[in-house]
Amino acid sequence: MKPRTKLQLRVAGLSSQLPNIESLMIDWAKNECLKHIGYATKSRIICMECGQRFAPELVKRKRAVCPHCDTSLKIEQSRKRINKQTMFIGKAEICEEFQVIRSFELIAYYRAETKPRYYIREILQHWIKDDGNREVVALANNMGFNGWCGELEIRNKVVGSYYYNHNNDIYCERYHPASVFRPKYIRMGIDCKLRGMSFLTAANTIPHSPKAETLLKARRYELIDYFEGHRYKIDKYWPSIKICLRNKYQIKDASMWFDYLELLDRYHKDLHNAFYVCPKNLRKAHDYYVAKRKKEQEKAEKERREQEMLKQKEAINKFLERISKFQDLVITDNQLTIIPLKSIEDFKEEGDKMHHCVFTNEYWKRENSLILSARIEDKRIETVEVNLKTLRVVQSQGVLNHDTKYHDRIIGLVTKNMNLIRQKLTA
Ligand SMILES: [Zn+2]
């Protein structure tokens, strides 16, 4: 987009004079941001930092120092020999009257036997004045996630922002330690340690949200992460969060902690009590209540199933009582024989052989229906439903619900003999 306004022209001019800091960013990030991994099998470790191998004996508690390059590695059990890491990193600078946030995409490729390759490109800059006016300088992001292309130039700024999206804001996982922020942001608690929110989101949210400000100043980034998307959890459990802050209780796994609070809540435990809210071993406490809940659910499920079986048994008994009147009913014209389905097994067999739903849809449960099977010798021709209230044939279905050439004859025969059914019914 061509700069048009006075502000855009000034930002475009200043932006083009910013020094290239890509190598500075890589030098910092490859040691401080990217994960240093060693892939381990039983016989060897591959250091992904230098590509060389060493013996598994050097691993202690899932960590090891590579004897070739001295990197401290996190060891993962895997046969993998390659790895790729992608992240967004940022640096805050002050340029004339602007707070500038420069965002970079970093990609690292790791491969056994070789050194890693790093690629970095600057993709977005925020230029923000103290009065809140701002501009965005960025690559084009036409395709959304990861679809950055073109040159750094003035772009439309769209409000509302989280993570990398087409809103022209980027969530940087880390900021370079040499970042410089204006005092007004420092006062909000924003500095190079900011996590869980993009700079823009933080700068826009904190002035209106004392909770966000409290969390940010306490550096509780694990909870800030919940502000967007799961804000209700922060609000709902704010008293418990304050207890954590007061007790300096570190929440290692926030999602597990929120799950745990939900369970505490369900069992009416005191959410203002550090004994419950700040468990020494979160996983153990969490698992205790999960197990308790699971037991309850299983009990309820068992009861439900028992109820169901009881209901089914009752329904079967009712059916058998109803059908007992029709035990010896036979309608015939000497070729066709039409007899009732007299048991649940009869229904199942009829449904299986005729490939229709007389059994699966539990037609035997229909109090006002009499289900008949029309046959020639042992061959099933059609299944007939008679409405016992109106004494009319409701339907007659052949295999796969198709009509047979006997269709009209069957309906005629049943209709002609409806008196037989009436007699049984009133007997
Ligand atoms: Zn190494």
The SS-based structural class is: alpha+beta
Tell me the distance between the termini. 90 Å
Taking all Cα atoms into account, the compactness measure Rg is 37 Å
Q: Can you summarize the main beta sheet?
A: 6 strands, mixed
Q: How many strand elements?
A: 16
Task: Please give the share of residues in helix.
Answer: 25-40%
List the total number of helices. 14
Q: Which segments are poorly predicted (pLDDT under 50) over 5 or more consecutive residues?
A: 159-166
Tertiary shape? elongated
How many structural domains are formed by the residues?
A: 3
Write out the strand line-up for the largest beta sheet, numbering strands in chain order. 10-9-8-7-6-11
Strand content: 25-35%
Q: What is the element string, with H for helices and E for strands?
A: HHEEEEEEEEEEEHHHHHHHHHEEHEEEHH
Identify the bound ligands. zinc ion
Q: Taking all residues together, what is the mean pLDDT?
A: 92
